[in-house]
């Protein structure tokens, strides 16, 4: 009887402990470096990074743990603060994990989204001091769930109080300072206007071919600490960015002025529109005194774990022709194809091509070149064959290719297996994407119309015949690998593996990190002409800090170095190329060739030697040496140090040294100094 009483008392105590565990105001996850405090009233958490004393607080505007977008029972789309849910429960799982359940969120009018639940989980890895945040389940009841921003507005910076930046790997990479001065080219009005014209908020996708992220991470830092979030592999949240914005967009409908402070934050946006799908999560690392370089290096370690990183030295060991890329100028010669075949005024004969290659070598003295010729076939893509007889046929084109082999250059004709063009006289929908009922899909893009299941077959159809006929050492495959989409992914991987098996020097337009093991060079991953963040961001080599010694990056053909664009003119691009360890791209139609001579000479003299020297080296660091971000310095693992000034004003750096406008100061790996500057002059006749 006494034993029964004791057991009963123990059970009661256990039940009391379990029931009060939900009523705890806080649950703490902690190790020697990180303390995470979770409170049950809102489900929010606070992170204290102990070394620096930095405290990362929750949402500074609405104290929202997350923002749920859903369609309510009246078919109205709404976004609700899940911290206003009727029930929030915390459950500790083991020593360093807590599950947070949000039930029945409340709409702004006080009504309740009955039956809607969300469960999230926070886990602290005490070996690495990383905080993992994930969504583990959700139910919709009679509502349609769309997306969840979680965690929302965390790790934010207060504009002009926290001196730091948001770090976004958009294309090559950008940082967005969290303070106004110095303004972007003195354009305070543009900086300020972005708050009111929605240019400082928006959503970016992962691995797309436009404004999206080239790597699955982002973060913020101030003078004390940095936080970088790395997304799980094979998970695709979007990134919502708010850069020095006061949330005026939340008040416009009511005609009111925002009551919020300007801040910047970066939120993952999870798609929860499909019931019972696996969502995944994001792991946050906290770096005392860290910045964007430390963030990139943190992801570099993860990229190697995920198998994305295959070094250029390993690629060289497999194919000695990879050593023709260092120092190369990438020449795009546009003869009309693939847009039009034998285009009047643009088409070149293969004798013309031979003459250009000879001039590049003999007259312009270019030691390393990659010749990419557009317009060599008599059919439109995706049928990259036969070689045009009208332009000279196989014999004459081989003579041109033989010249490139003789000079130690690389050559490829333009290849694409994904495009279908309406102006093709043999246009057909045979290879287009179709749904189960045969309805055409992907009809809006002429460049991505071919169902990926056909692309390997189209490549195999003629590529080995072309390689044999011309004795090719290289291949450029356009478009297919510009993005990394889930739809048709396995077929694209099969195509990449096949192209890789040909053991040529392989290149592709844009490129994404998942394709790095199969390619030696990317044409692209530089900067877009006018992306949403251009006015309020500074260019940083985030991609190269991770992957410089794994993939050779050249300029984008449609954003050529020889045009004045929003990315800067040839001077700025050349300076940025030596700074980032990037190769030069020069793109021209045949009739423009003679006008390219001066730029080719400058690129050959300045960019090529630095590119050749740093090609296999890791880009170890990058820093801004002037308050206006114009003077920058990089260091490579081979010992090369590059300082450039991409502005037109002479500036002194920390040691009193003056770097002239549009100037450079390069310490070579052998200790030799190269210095100079670009000057604009006027010649009167």
Automatic annotation (TrEMBL):
It holds the Pfam family DUF5696. The keyword Heme does not apply. Residues 578-642 form the FHA domain. The keyword Glycoprotein does not apply. It comes from Cellulophaga lytica (strain ATCC 23178 / DSM 7489 / JCM 8516 / NBRC 14961 / NCIMB 1423 / VKM B-1433 / Cy l20). PROSITE patterns: FHA_DOMAIN. InterPro entries: DUF5696, FHA_dom. Residues 1-23 form the signal peptide. Keywords: Signal. This is FHA domain-containing protein.
């Amino acid at each position: 009887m006494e034993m029964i009483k004791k057991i009963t008392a123990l059970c009661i105590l256990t039940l009391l402990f379990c029931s009060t565990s939900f009523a705890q105001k806080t649950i703490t996850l902690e190790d020697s470096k990180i303390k995470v405090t979770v409170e049950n009233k809102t489900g929010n958490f606070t992170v204290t990074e102990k070394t620096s004393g930095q405290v990362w607080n929750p949402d500074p505007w609405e104290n929202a743990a997350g923002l749920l977008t859903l369609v309510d029972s009246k078919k109205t789309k709404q976004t609700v603060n899940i911290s206003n849910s009727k029930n929030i429960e915390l459950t500790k799982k083991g020593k360093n994990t807590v599950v947070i359940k949000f039930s029945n969120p409340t709409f702004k009018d006080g009504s309740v989204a009955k039956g809607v639940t969300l469960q999230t989980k926070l886990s602290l890895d005490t070996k690495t001091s990383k905080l993992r945040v994930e969504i583990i389940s959700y139910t919709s009841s009679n509502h349609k769930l769309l997306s969840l921003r979680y965690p929302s507005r965390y790790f934010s910076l207060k504009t002009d109080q926290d001196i730091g930046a948001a770090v976004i790997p958009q294309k090559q990479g950008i940082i967005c300072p969290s303070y106004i001065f110095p303004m972007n080219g003195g354009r305070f009005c543009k900086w300020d206007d972005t708050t009111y014209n929605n240019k400082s908020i928006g959503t970016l996708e992962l691995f797309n071919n436009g404004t999206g992220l080239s790597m699955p991470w982002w973060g913020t830092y101030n003078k004390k600490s940095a936080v970088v979030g790395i997304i799980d592999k094979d998970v695709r949240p979007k990134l919502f960015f708010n850069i020095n914005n006061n949330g005026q967009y939340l008040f416009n409908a009511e005609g009111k002025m925002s009551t919020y402070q300007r801040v910047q934050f970066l939120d993952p946006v999870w798609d929860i529109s499909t019931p019972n799908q696996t969502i995944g999560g994001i792991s946050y690392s906290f770096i005392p005194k860290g910045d964007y370089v430390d963030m990139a290096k943190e992801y570099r370690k993860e990229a190697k774990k995920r198998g994305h990183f295959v070094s250029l030295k390993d690629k060289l060991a497999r194919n000695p022709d990879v050593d023709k890329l260092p120092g190369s100028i990438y020449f795009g010669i546009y003869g009309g194809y693939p847009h039009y075949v034998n285009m009047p005024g643009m088409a070149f004969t293969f004798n013309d091509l031979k003459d250009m290659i000879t001039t590049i070598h003999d007259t312009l003295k270019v030691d390393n070149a990659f010749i990419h010729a557009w317009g060599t076939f008599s059919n439109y893509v995706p049928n990259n064959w036969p070689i045009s007889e009208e332009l000279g046929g196989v014999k004459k084109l081989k003579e041109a290719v033989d010249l490139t082999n003789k000079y130690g250059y690389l050559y490829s004709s333009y290849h694409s297996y994904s495009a279908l063009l309406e102006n093709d006289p043999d246009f057909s929908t045979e290879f287009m994407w179709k749904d189960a009922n045969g309805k055409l899909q992907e009809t809006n893009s002429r460049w991505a119309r071919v169902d990926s299941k056909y692309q390997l077959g189209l490549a195999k159809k003629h590529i080995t015949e072309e390689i044999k006929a011309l004795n090719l050492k290289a291949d450029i495959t356009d478009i297919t690998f510009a993005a990394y989409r889930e739809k048709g992914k396995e077929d694209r991987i099969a195509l990449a593996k096949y192209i890789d098996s040909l053991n040529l020097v392989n290149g592709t337009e844009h490129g994404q990190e998942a394709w790095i093991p199969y390619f030696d060079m990317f044409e692209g991953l530089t900067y877009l002409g006018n992306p949403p963040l251009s006015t309020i961001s500074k260019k940083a080599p985030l991609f190269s800090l991770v992957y410089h010694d794994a993939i050779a990056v050249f300029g984008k053909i449609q954003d050529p170095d020889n045009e004045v664009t929003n990315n800067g003119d040839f001077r700025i691009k050349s300076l940025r190329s030596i700074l980032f360890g990037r190769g030069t791209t020069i793109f021209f139609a045949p009739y423009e060739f003679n006008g390219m001579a001066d730029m080719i000479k400058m690129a050959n003299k300045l960019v090529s030697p630095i590119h050749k020297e740093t090609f296999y080296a890791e880009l170890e660091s990058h820093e801004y040496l002037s308050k206006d971000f114009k003077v920058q310095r990089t260091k490579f693992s081979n010992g090369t140090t590059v300082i450039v000034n991409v502005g037109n004003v002479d500036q002194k750096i920390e040691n009193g040294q003056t770097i002239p406008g549009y100037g450079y100061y390069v310490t070579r790996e052998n200790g030799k100094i190269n210095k100079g500057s670009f000057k604009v002059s006027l010649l009167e006749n």
